[in-house]
Amino acid sequence: MSQPYPTPTLRAIDGALMLENVALQEIAARCGTPTYVYSRAALTSAFEAYQRALAGRRALVCYAVKANSNLGVLSVFARLGAGFDIVSGGELARVLAAGGDAGKVVFSGVGKSRAEMRRAIEAGIRCFNVESAAELERLDEVAGQLGRKAPIALRVNPDVDPKTHPYISTGLKSNKFGVAFDDAFALYRRASQLPNLRVSGVACHIGSQLLDPAPMAEAAQKVLGLVDKLAAEGIALDHIDLGGGLGIRYRDENPPAVADYLAPLLAVFAGRREELCFEPGRSLVGNAGLLLTRIEYLKPGADRNFAIVDAAMNDLARPALYDAYHEVVAVRARDVPARRYEIVGPICESGDFLAHDRSLAVADGDLLAILSAGAYGMTMSSNYNTRGRAAEVIVDGDRIHLVRERETVDSLYALEKPLA
Ligand code: LLP
């Protein structure tokens, strides 16, 4: 039988859901709910799929930390030899705290502050993916003050349509990201003249949850044209960063396997000496994680039935924010008739839903697993309604590692005080 769940290490045994060799019921009993649960084996196999597909090529996989920045998760990737794609000084600090190698860090983002630049130069990161002319000048100045040369790539905007959700498409002319493709050549010239910069590569990223490799291959072709044009001008690049973006199955999507996604890109650069970098986030962690939650109340209604759970939009914002679909399954099969439910949280907003119209055979107090929640789940969580963030757990074989404790209420206002 093919795996019924999008998470490769999740299965039902005697009617109870297990992640690797741990019953989800046991995690709830030990750590409470809501809790994010990640599978080390699933994280590892997702990363190894990239490594296998890139074997024999100069290549670096830089995990996009924004997808899931828990130190436990970062340490799993660091041990596998991953690089990291960061977008803030905070993410750099996390990577270093988790044992990541600064020499394999690329720094993306349109708004890098001077302090963030300084810290990243001092740490010795591999590359700044520079997103504007003004940033280039600022980075040169900051590097000069430190007496260092900062390695740079320009993040170019190849203006291709990634055919994904408009909020997560980044490579169109109308997006705020990257430098316009037509300006890149002149900016590289400028960069090569600035005394405190070392031109190292080129970067692009066109969007997220991509299900079709064609737009990426189109972007890669454009980038290759630029690389050749620069070489003819005497500006030789050492690496080409093609960003992240590979999609995952949430419901019935059919994303290409990592190898099939990379094959057309590798074909574009066949026989080239430049190192290829990738910045995958979602495809490394999305289906390695789930959100475990408990039903507080079943509330039958004239129009709809509600299952009110202890997780909410502050824990998992994707449904409210993007109308994203996450599979919801009962952790233990129960012999009651199935009903259709709106799965909602306790927050005082009608937008606080996790799933619409799902058929479940459940009773009060039952546990639910919200699947495919390993990416952009915990990292986009908030404390709205003064709700402490969920705990986080990594399952490894038959072991349960608590990698983030549940936030306590007093910690939520520890930095505040009443007016004197
Ligand atoms: N590199 C750059 C420069 C990025 O902007 C992103 C994601 C990635 C890499 C990683 O992309 P991935 O492989 O994860 O697709 N919050 C949204 C997704 C936002 C993605 C932003 N950029 C969501 O929950 O769907």
Fraction of residues in helix: 25-40%
Annotation field: number of helices: 12
How large a portion of the residues is in β-strands, by DSSP E?
25-35%
Counting helices, strands and paired strands, the structural category is: alpha/beta
Ligand identities: ligand LLP
CATH superfamily of the largest domain: Alanine racemase
CATH class of the largest domain: Alpha Beta
Mean pLDDT: 96
**Under CATH, the topology of the largest domain is which?**
TIM Barrel
- Annotation, overall tally of beta strands: 21
Number of domains: 2
* Unreliable parts: none
Q: Please give the CATH architecture of the largest domain.
A: Alpha-Beta Barrel
Task: Explain how this protein is built.
The protein is an alpha/beta fold and 420 residues long. It folds into two domains: 10-39 and 286-412, Beta Barrel (Lyase, Ornithine Decarboxylase, Chain A, domain 1), CATH 2.40.37; 108-280, Alanine racemase (TIM Barrel), CATH 3.20.20.10. The protein contains twelve helices and 21 strands. It has helices spanning 24-31, 40-53, 71-79, 89-97, 114-123, 133-146, 181-193, 214-232, 258-268, 282-285, 318-322, 409-412; strands at residues 10-13, 16-19, 22-23, 35-39, 59-64, 83-86, 105-107, 127-130, 150-157, 179-180, 197-203, 239-241, 275-278, 289-299, 305-309, 328-330, 339-344, 353-360, 367-370, 391-396, 399-404. The protein is globular and about 70 Å long. The mean pLDDT is 96. The site of ligand LLP has 20 residues, from α10.
